[in-house]
Design a protein that fits this description.
The chain is of the alpha+beta class. The chain has helices at residues 29-53, 57-79, 145-162; strands at residues 2-6, 15-21, 83-89, 93-98, 104-109, 115-119, 127-132, 135-139.
Length: 164
């Protein structure tokens, strides 16, 4: 999810641009619990059918599939807690990011010296970096290519307005 908020640029200390980024989560917990329950019921039914036919080890593999699917959902929800905020005022460009454990990294750049760079690597999603005076930080690492371009365009336009 991506929220881009812009404000009036009359006050130098005010925030001109605020971008809040969080990973997209497809469904809520209730829908995923229902999906896992349906999948578990199908696994038990198919496993029981194979058990009756004489192929007992299939039941173990069905249980393994269920455990792996649950682990994948857990991994996705754990990493969906990441978030990143970018704020721009006349005095600073601030990049704050929180990892899936809640640890915060706060990086500050001077807007006048800040430079945006989109790094394109063949076969990969382009990466967006902000740099100033030898310090470099990636922005929106978990975003898709369209959202990352939207962030780059908004930030580029706002930085151009801040610089005299």
């Amino acid at each position: 999810m991506l929220d881009v908020l812009t404000n009036d640029r009359t006050d130098f200390d005010a925030v001109f641009l605020e971008i809040r980024m969080v990973p997209n989560v497809a469904d809520g917990l209730r829908q995923n619990a229902l999906l896992l329950g349906i999948f578990a019921a199908v696994c038990v039914a198919v496993g029981a059918l194979f058990w009756l036919v004489g192929a007992g080890p299939v039941m173990g593999f069905m249980g393994l599939e269920l455990i792996l699917l649950y682990a994948a959902y857990r991994f996705g929800y754990t990493h969906a807690r990441r978030r990143e905020w970018v704020t721009l005022s006349g005095r600073e460009l601030r990049v704050r990011r929180w990892d899936h454990r809640g640890h915060e990294v706060d990086e500050t750049f001077e807007p006048y010296w800040s430079k945006l760079e989109m790094v394109h690597v063949r076969g990969r999603v382009p990466r967006l970096f902000v740099s100033a005076r030898g310090h470099k930080a990636e922005i929106g690492a978990f975003l898709g290519p369209e959202e990352r371009l939207r962030v780059a365009d908004a930030l580029h336009a706002a930085l151009a307005d801040v610089k005299p």
